[in-house]
Here is the input.
Amino acid sequence: GVSGALSLSTGSSTSGDSGDVSVVSGSSASGSGGDIVISVGSGDGVGGSTSITAGASSAADGGDASMVAGSSSSGSGGALSLESGMGSTSGGALSVTGGVGTSSLGGSIALTSGSGTDTSSGSVTVSTANAGTAGVSGALSLST
Here is the structure.
Protein backbone atom coordinates (compact mmCIF):
# COMPACT_ATOMS: atom_id res chain seq x y z
CA GLY A 1 0.00 0.00 0.00
CA VAL A 2 0.89 3.63 0.24
CA SER A 3 2.71 4.90 3.32
CA GLY A 4 1.42 7.95 5.13
CA ALA A 5 2.17 11.50 4.07
CA LEU A 6 3.89 14.13 6.22
CA SER A 7 3.06 17.77 5.70
CA LEU A 8 4.68 20.66 7.59
CA SER A 9 3.23 24.05 6.76
CA THR A 10 2.13 27.40 8.09
CA GLY A 11 -1.04 29.27 7.34
CA SER A 12 -1.54 31.66 4.45
CA SER A 13 -2.16 35.37 4.82
CA THR A 14 -4.30 37.70 2.71
CA SER A 15 -2.94 41.00 4.04
CA GLY A 16 0.44 40.42 5.69
CA ASP A 17 3.36 38.03 5.88
CA SER A 18 2.67 34.32 6.20
CA GLY A 19 4.33 32.30 8.95
CA ASP A 20 7.85 30.88 8.86
CA VAL A 21 8.89 27.23 9.17
CA SER A 22 12.16 26.63 10.96
CA VAL A 23 13.92 23.27 11.43
CA VAL A 24 17.05 23.68 13.54
CA SER A 25 19.41 21.13 15.02
CA GLY A 26 21.18 21.78 18.29
CA SER A 27 24.58 23.35 18.78
CA SER A 28 27.35 21.95 20.95
CA ALA A 29 29.99 23.80 22.95
CA SER A 30 32.38 20.83 23.05
CA GLY A 31 31.23 18.36 20.36
CA SER A 32 29.62 18.22 16.95
CA GLY A 33 26.43 20.03 16.07
CA GLY A 34 23.38 17.93 15.30
CA ASP A 35 22.57 16.79 11.77
CA ILE A 36 19.42 17.40 9.75
CA VAL A 37 18.65 14.72 7.18
CA ILE A 38 16.04 15.14 4.47
CA SER A 39 15.49 11.92 2.59
CA VAL A 40 12.77 10.60 0.30
CA GLY A 41 11.75 6.99 -0.08
CA SER A 42 12.93 4.43 -2.59
CA GLY A 43 10.60 2.16 -4.52
CA ASP A 44 10.29 -0.50 -7.18
CA GLY A 45 8.84 2.23 -9.39
CA VAL A 46 10.21 5.73 -9.57
CA GLY A 47 12.04 6.92 -6.47
CA GLY A 48 10.59 9.87 -4.60
CA SER A 49 11.61 13.39 -5.57
CA THR A 50 13.02 16.22 -3.46
CA SER A 51 12.22 19.80 -4.30
CA ILE A 52 13.37 23.00 -2.59
CA THR A 53 11.64 26.04 -4.06
CA ALA A 54 11.80 29.65 -2.97
CA GLY A 55 8.58 31.62 -2.94
CA ALA A 56 7.30 33.50 -5.96
CA SER A 57 6.03 37.08 -5.85
CA SER A 58 3.64 38.96 -8.10
CA ALA A 59 4.62 42.42 -6.82
CA ALA A 60 8.26 42.22 -5.67
CA ASP A 61 11.35 40.02 -6.01
CA GLY A 62 11.03 36.27 -5.63
CA GLY A 63 12.52 34.66 -2.56
CA ASP A 64 16.13 33.50 -2.46
CA ALA A 65 17.25 29.89 -2.12
CA SER A 66 20.62 29.26 -0.52
CA MET A 67 22.70 26.18 0.30
CA VAL A 68 25.85 26.95 2.28
CA ALA A 69 28.36 24.51 3.74
CA GLY A 70 29.60 25.16 7.28
CA SER A 71 32.49 27.42 8.19
CA SER A 72 35.30 26.60 10.60
CA SER A 73 37.51 28.92 12.64
CA SER A 74 40.16 26.25 13.21
CA GLY A 75 39.91 23.78 10.30
CA SER A 76 38.69 23.49 6.75
CA GLY A 77 35.28 24.72 5.70
CA GLY A 78 32.68 22.11 4.83
CA ALA A 79 32.34 20.87 1.26
CA LEU A 80 29.20 21.37 -0.82
CA SER A 81 28.45 18.66 -3.35
CA LEU A 82 25.75 18.55 -6.04
CA GLU A 83 25.61 15.19 -7.79
CA SER A 84 23.05 13.55 -10.02
CA GLY A 85 22.08 9.91 -9.63
CA MET A 86 23.75 6.84 -11.07
CA GLY A 87 21.70 4.70 -13.44
CA SER A 88 22.06 1.24 -14.92
CA THR A 89 21.49 2.83 -18.35
CA SER A 90 22.25 6.57 -18.26
CA GLY A 91 23.29 8.67 -15.30
CA GLY A 92 21.06 11.53 -14.25
CA ALA A 93 21.65 14.96 -15.74
CA LEU A 94 22.75 17.97 -13.69
CA SER A 95 21.54 21.34 -14.92
CA VAL A 96 22.44 24.80 -13.63
CA THR A 97 20.41 27.49 -15.36
CA GLY A 98 20.06 31.20 -14.75
CA GLY A 99 16.54 32.56 -14.49
CA VAL A 100 14.61 34.09 -17.37
CA GLY A 101 14.04 37.85 -17.29
CA THR A 102 10.94 38.76 -19.29
CA SER A 103 11.47 42.53 -19.29
CA SER A 104 15.12 42.84 -18.28
CA LEU A 105 18.29 40.76 -18.05
CA GLY A 106 18.35 37.01 -17.59
CA GLY A 107 20.02 35.64 -14.48
CA SER A 108 23.78 35.22 -14.48
CA ILE A 109 25.79 32.15 -13.47
CA ALA A 110 29.16 32.61 -11.76
CA LEU A 111 31.62 29.84 -10.90
CA THR A 112 34.30 31.27 -8.65
CA SER A 113 36.94 29.50 -6.61
CA GLY A 114 37.56 30.45 -3.02
CA SER A 115 40.26 32.91 -2.09
CA GLY A 116 43.09 31.95 0.21
CA THR A 117 43.74 34.72 2.70
CA ASP A 118 47.31 33.60 3.40
CA THR A 119 47.93 31.23 0.47
CA SER A 120 46.70 30.44 -3.03
CA SER A 121 43.12 30.61 -4.23
CA GLY A 122 41.26 27.42 -5.18
CA SER A 123 41.11 25.95 -8.66
CA VAL A 124 38.21 25.78 -11.12
CA THR A 125 38.12 22.64 -13.27
CA VAL A 126 35.65 22.04 -16.09
CA SER A 127 36.01 18.66 -17.75
CA THR A 128 34.14 15.71 -19.21
CA ALA A 129 34.69 12.19 -17.90
CA ASN A 130 36.80 9.60 -19.70
CA ALA A 131 34.88 7.25 -21.99
CA GLY A 132 34.14 3.66 -21.07
CA THR A 133 35.27 0.67 -23.10
CA ALA A 134 33.05 1.71 -26.02
CA GLY A 135 32.47 5.29 -27.09
CA VAL A 136 34.21 8.62 -26.67
CA SER A 137 34.29 11.08 -23.82
CA GLY A 138 31.57 13.73 -23.80
CA ALA A 139 31.99 17.00 -25.66
CA LEU A 140 32.80 20.26 -23.90
CA SER A 141 31.11 23.29 -25.41
CA LEU A 142 31.51 26.93 -24.35
CA SER A 143 29.54 29.56 -26.22
CA THR A 144 27.91 32.96 -25.81
